[in-house]
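Contributing new records

If you add data, match the layout below exactly. Sequence lines come first and carry their own label; structure lines follow with theirs. Keep one chain per record. Anything else will be rejected by the validation script.
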Amino acid sequence: MCDLGVTLDSELSMQQHVNKVAWTCFFHIGRLKQVCQLLQSDVAAKLTSAFVLNRLDYCNVVLASLTKSTIAPLQLVQNVAAGLASRVEPRDHMTSALQHLHWLPVQQQIIYKLCLLMHPVNIRCTPSYLTESVTATAALGSRSHLRSTSSCHYQQPHTQRK
């Protein structure tokens, strides 16, 4: 029961973090709207990327275990930013704008960044403190007879929140 309380507290604090990031991004989008109308579309896309996407991408790996509904405000920010950068109407579908700008949706950005972090760990090209912080499922004695031991799966370390 105590673990459930910690999980709910961490989900709530992450929801607050997501809302704060979304609010900050919307503030910058509002300021960029005034300027982007006067600029060429490629310059508008670069400014939007610099002021908005960097905030969405910063430390987003901590959002990996969250539900889609918790991450939804960040996806909304990205959709609005894509509309601003590619100059499409606000009610248009943003998938084509995201593809045109070569922007991954937020959930896929998180997965991509996790893969970028875990690949060097997997091939042992990281400092020892990173390699030792995760445990390969093949190294777990209780799972030695499973087919997953031949895969490159890792067990998430247990963390305690005080």
